[in-house]
Amino acid sequence: MQKFSTLFVKYNTYLLFVVYCGISFLFIKFQDDDLLTKLHNNGMEATAFITDKMMSYSYVLNLKEENDRLMRINTELLSRVLNTETAAFDERTRQKILADTTLKASKFIMARVVNRKFSDRENMLLINAGWRDGIKKEMTVLTPEGLVGRVSTVSEHFAKVMPIINADFKVSVVSGSSNSMGLLSWNGGNESIAQVEHIPISSSLKLNEQILTSDFSTFASRGIPVGKVVRIQPDKLFYTVEVKLAVDFSSLTHVLIAPLKIEAEKIEMIRENASVETFP
Predict the structure, then answer these.
(1) How far is CA 26 from CA 21, 22, 32, 128, in A?
(2) Which pLDDT value is given to residue 247?
(3) Interval 188-200: pLDDT, tens
(4) Cα 49 to chain centroid, rounded
(5) Pairwise CA distance, residues 140 & 231, whole Å
(6) 129 CB contacts (<8 Å, ≥6 apart)?
(7) What is the mean pLDDT of the chain?
C-alpha cells in the first residue's frame, strides 16, 4: 500500500493524463454517437423528402399522360359527333330539296357550298362538284327558293359560282303580274337587296310583285324566282327598283345545278347585231 502511494505520488501527473485521456475518449464516443444519430435522422428525412417529391413528379407525369389520353378520346368522340351531325344535316337538306314540289330535282345536280369569297363587290361561291359530275360553265345554280347564280369556272371536282351578289352578275328578269321586263344586277352592300334597271315609268309595276328570270336570259331558264319588289322610285325615263332576293346567301349550304341551257343560235344572232342591247 505504501509502495502504491509512493508510485501514485511519483507518477500522478501521468496517471491523471491517462484518466483525462480516457474521459476525453468517452466524450468523443458519446458525441460521435449523437452525430451519427443526427446524421442518420437527417438522412432519413432527406430520403423521405426526395421520395415524396419523386412520387409527386411521377404523379404529375402520369396525370399528364392520362389527360393526354382522355383528350385524344374526347377529340375522336367530338369528331364522330360532328361528322354524324353534318351527315344528318346534309341528308335533311337533301330530302327537303327533293321533296320540293316546285322542282323536278331528278333533273338537277346537287352540290354543297364548300367555300365562299367574302367581298363588298365580288362574292364567289365554291361547290363540291366539277366536270366529272357533269358540271359545265354557264350552268344555272339555284335552290327551291330561287336563283343563286351561274357557274363561271369548272375543275375536275369543284366549280366556282358567280352569285347574284357579284357586281359583274346580270340577268334578264320579268315581273310576275305586270310583265315588266328589266335587267337585274347587284350594286354592292346589302346581300339581300338587288336592283332592276330599264323598267320604263310607263310600266304598271307594283310593290311586292314577284321577279322571275325571263326568256331573254342566255343562261337561265324562264320562271326561276329571283325576289320581290320592295322599292319603286320613278326617274326621268325609268324606275329605280329594288328587289329583296329570294335566296338567303348568309345561310346557303346546298345548291342545285340545272342542265345547261343551249341557245347557241340565239346568242350568235344577238352578237351579230351589235346595235341590239343584249341581256345575260
Answers:
(1) 9, 6, 10, 97
(2) 95
(3) 889 999 999 999 9
(4) 51
(5) 27
(6) 109, 110, 111, 135, 157, 158, 159, 257
(7) 77
Strand pairing report for 109-117 and 124-127: antiparallel
Fold of 105-272: Thrombin, subunit H (2.40.10)
DSSP the chain: -HHHHHHHHHTHHHHHHHHHHHHHHHHHHHHHHHHHHHHHHHHHHHHHHHHHHHHHHHHHHHHHHHHHHHHHHHHHHHHHHHHHHHHHHHHHHHHHHHH-TTS-GGGSEEEEEEEEE--SSB-EEEES--GGGT--TT-EEEETTEEEEEEEEE-SS-EEEEESSBTT-EEEEEETTT--EEEEE--SS-TTEEEEEEEETTS---TT-EEEE-TT-SSSPTT-EEEEEEEEEE-SSEEEEEEEESS-GGG--EEEEPPP---HHHHHHHHH-TTSPP--
pLDDT in tens, 222-241: 888 999 999 999 988 999 99
Confirm if 209 and 125 have CB atoms less than 8 A apart. Answer: no
| Residue 43 CA from chain centroid, whole number | 60
**Residues 239-263: tens digit of each pLDDT:** 999 999 999 998 898 899 988 876 5
- By C-alpha distance, which of 238, 123, 241, 137 is closest to 191? 123
Q: Tell me, what's the pLDDT at 231?
A: 96
Write out the three cell numbers for 153. Answer: 369556272
User: Residue 137 corresponds to which cell in the numbers above?
Assistant: 360553265
CA 114 – CA 91 distance, rounded (Å): 16
> Does pLDDT of 44 surpass 70?
no
- In the numeric block, which cell numbers belong to residue 16? 491523471
Distance CA 90, CA 95 (A): 9
Which amino acid does the sequence have at 268? Answer: E
